[in-house]
Amino acid sequence: MRVQHYRIAGEPVIVRSVETSEDVRAFLDWCRSNHNRPIAFDTETTGLDIYAAGFRVRLVQFGTEREAWVLPVDSAAGLVCAPQAAVREALESLPYLLAHNAKFDALAVAAHLGVDLVSLWRRITDTRILAHLLDPRGPQDPGGIGQGLKPLSARHVDPDAPDTQAGLYAEFRKLGHTKETGWAAIDLDNPLYTLYAGLDVILTARLFAVLGPLVEFAGYGRLSEFEHAVALVCARIEARGFLLDVEYTETLAARLLAEADEWSAVARRFGVSSVNAPAQISAALEGMGENLSETTESGAIKVDKEVLLPLADLDRKWQRIGAREANPLADAVLRAKRASKWATSYADAMLSRRDTRDRIHPDIASLQARTARMSISRPPLQQLPSGDWVIRRAMQAEPGCVVGTVDYQAVELRVLAALSGDVQMTAAIHAGKDLHAFTAELIYGPGFTEYHRKVCKGIGFGKVYGGGPDTLSRQTGAPLDQVKAAIRAYDRAYAGVRRYSKRLQSRAEWGVKEVVTPAGRRLPLDRKRLYAATNYMVQSTARDVLAEALLRLDERGLTEFLRLPVHDEVVFVAPADDAKEIGREIQTAMAVDDFFGVPLTTDLEIGGRTWGSLYGAAA
DNA sequence: ACTTTCACG
DNA sequence: ACGTACGTGAAAGTG
Hints:
Layout: E1 2-8, E2 11-17, H1 21-33, E3 39-45, E4 57-63, E5 67-72, H2 84-93, E6 97-99, H3 102-112, H4 117-121, E7 124-126, H5 127-134, H6 149-156, H7 164-174, H8 179-185, H9 191-217, H10 221-240, E8 242-244, H11 246-269, H12 278-287, H13 305-311, H14 328-352, E9 359-360, E10 363-365, E11 375-377, E12 395-396, E13 401-408, H15 411-420, H16 423-430, H17 435-444, H18 450-465, H19 469-476, H20 480-493, H21 495-510, E14 514-516, E15 522-524, H22 533-555, E16 562-565, E17 569-575, H23 579-590, E18 592-595, E19 598-600, E20 602-606
Parallel strand pairs: 2-5, 3-6, 6-7
Antiparallel strand pairs: 1-2, 3-4, 4-5, 8-9, 8-12, 10-11, 13-17, 13-20, 14-15, 16-17, 18-19
The structure holds a DNA duplex.
């Protein structure tokens, strides 16, 4: 057994690395004698892509505030002692486990060491969840530090705790590896590797010693349980994965890449060597006599889609307007950028993330944004183009099955009506009215047009988000004076909403700079952006509506059909013959009859074999 | 590392 | 004193 010593917060800690079968027995003895204490665990792996061919768990660590055990389990290492069975035994029997960002480690040991995910998860407390409840701000937000183990340890455990990740990257480079290759290549007994692996669990145990009582003291006990349950459902969705149509996606990627090349060649003829270089584009456009007035935050000339589309005589749906001669460079830049983004961010990302059964396991972060919203990454399946089916067509149901969705109808506006108690808005919802059309009628009278409805939809969202007349005018494309009039009319029609927003803001102005959601979540506000209060409240509450729905779906045994949560909807896959029935069950489980006086109703859509079929692709 | 852009709800 | 659209993930260029 190798023993390494270190100091954390001025106290000596010890890291033991298992080398012999005798060490394995000593580890199991240690587990037994610490059975009743919370034990932090962690894994070191070959990479982040748990389901990729060649992925391996290399180390599994267990530890308390003072002591860590590091066990090598890498199947490719030809180990003298094989502690896999002991690791499994520990993971299956220790009653009280801790982990930071537990989902990753739990999925890794479930997929590669044969540990049962559900029974393991029931015994885990995730310190990242605790940290998010206590402060959901990201590292970029004013006053925020994020939920990383490093910044949390620095704040709550030891300001001089080592940055183990950065330290390892430096070691990788020294050994001739890179950030990416180092994780798989570093020797299992590299002293820095084992030391840092051990320190991570010691830090997690110490972090819990601080955050655990804070969570209880803040009254977050139930919310914490709720979040752990939601995280498990999301982890199971992730583990199941979503089937990729590889042949289609490969053809699509090649086609998009060729398209990007063609349009890049056109841009090159106008002196733009890269369509991703804004300075080149603005210089070339100005050389062609175009007048560019919009600037970015840092003062550079803006050449985003909003600027380029009018120059190319295209509307927001890329239809020819006929107002001017299309600028061929603007047109080429737009098309090249779209094609290459779709190729790299979506098609290639999907292909590179598939497992041996052609399934995609995106990283579902069930508790991510400041508002607790979920995020999905690698690949970003919540952000696929919705105006065109070609990308979504890549994801498909298993043979004999179809893809469907259930989404909430105008959930953010309904949540706003519920929270504000606005009488008029609540009544309109109860009457089953189209809220945006109803608003249009209130403002423009019974003769309102489809255009008026659109303006009102924009204003409705803009109000929720706290936008002013200028932004709303730009966003909706409606003239400023009309928007201003509509805002006035909106405030008159929905006086309760206006009162509610004002109340949230003035409370924050004079009292604590936060909003408290009905779920009991305390969301800090940036002092310069108190107007975001209503948005945080509504967005966060809508998120919790979906999160609670996921738990109801799980209770009813419907998790196996789920493929993705997408903010206000779930994507599911079911056998074609049962899809309607299963879809209805999902609808029923998600619907809320009385959410603070407002019904939250759902829409069901059943498509064909692919996700794209719900966006216009042939079934 | 930072900026810019673009995809979604 | 004033008015501010919110929340994400990802790629690529620049320095």
